[in-house]
Amino acid sequence: MTESTYVMLPDRGVITIAGPDRHAFLQGLVSNDMARVAPDRVVWAALLTPQGKYLHDFFVAERDGRFLLDCEAGRLMHLGQTLHKYKLRAEVELGIGDDHAVAAVPGAKGAAALGLPSEPGAAIDFAGGIAWTDPRLAAMGARVLAPKAAIEAALSALGLSAGGLAAFDSVRLALGFPDGSRDMIVEKSILLENGFDELGGVDWDKGCYMGQELTARTKYRGLIKKRLMPVHFEGQAPAPGTQVTLDGRDAGEMRSSCGEVGLALLRLDQVAKAAETGTPLKAGETALTPQRPEWMAQ
């Protein structure tokens, strides 16, 4: 069971941000409120293009007077270079936490297995690093960011066994959570189509940040016409990028998958029409059954 499993996430990396201006620096760039970040609180946030399209997303933790950004390892250098471009005269020091690793304890009991509160975003010291309940939804479980030399031994000491990425993805996909650029198209995707509102990735009361105008306009004008949501199917998974159709008309596009569940960015009008008519959505020859997560606004 996933509740007794930890999963190392080799596709995650760590960027560090130290210095007295670290809060103000990130506050003007990212979608969430950096005033909420503390040694006992982690947030999920996104960095957008000036036009308001997705560029990066990451978890922001704080330990020993510096921010730790749990981000995509394959795009870590791009994120670091982008942050450096906006550094200007801010008193911050950017670094790479290459001595740290990231692990997940997926599932509804993941937080409790680490002694964490069930409140999303709650954090504690763990193995010389930090562990936190997923700030999006406690049902996703917990994450750990700690020194590579200690992280697996500390997790094993709790009675957790090592699992594969499928144990993590099966929970993530069922909940409808995007996994960075696997599910969101860089410089094209819109945050609110991918759950950032309901899952706490956007703070609507903070000051301006890069790309805020489009994000706010999308919300307040009700411009969301597509949503990323779980889809179930039988047989081989459609490849990411496969067009989804309804009666031959465009209905969306496949994203990542594991087993017989995946994510697809779907047109809401076509999802409603499929439900009304009983006509299946298709990705190629594969029939898809969309499942709206409980957390997703109607």
Helix content: 10-25%
Specify the CATH architecture of the largest domain.
2-Layer Sandwich
SS-derived structural category:
alpha+beta
Report low-confidence residues grouped into runs of 5 or more. Answer: none
How many beta-strand runs?
17
Q: How many helical elements?
A: 7
The average pLDDT score comes to 96
Structural account:
With 298 residues, the protein is of the alpha+beta class. The protein folds into 2 domains: 2-180, Probable tRNA modification gtpase trme, domain 1 (Gyrase A, domain 2); 225-298, Elongation Factor Tu (Ef-tu), domain 3 (Beta Barrel), CATH 2.40.30. Helices cover 20% and strands 33% of the residues. It contains 7 helices and 17 strands. It has helices spanning 22-27, 76-85, 110-113, 148-157, 165-175, 212-220, 268-277, and strands at residues 5-8, 12-18, 43-48, 54-63, 66-72, 93-96, 100-106, 123-126, 129-133, 141-147, 161-162, 226-232, 243-246, 249-258, 261-267, 281-283, 286-290. The strands form 3 sheets. Strands 8-9-10-7-1-11 form a 6-stranded mixed β-sheet, sandwiched between helices. A hairpin with a 7-residue loop joins strand 9 (129-133) and strand 10 (141-147). The protein is globular, with a radius of gyration of 19 Å. The mean pLDDT is 96.
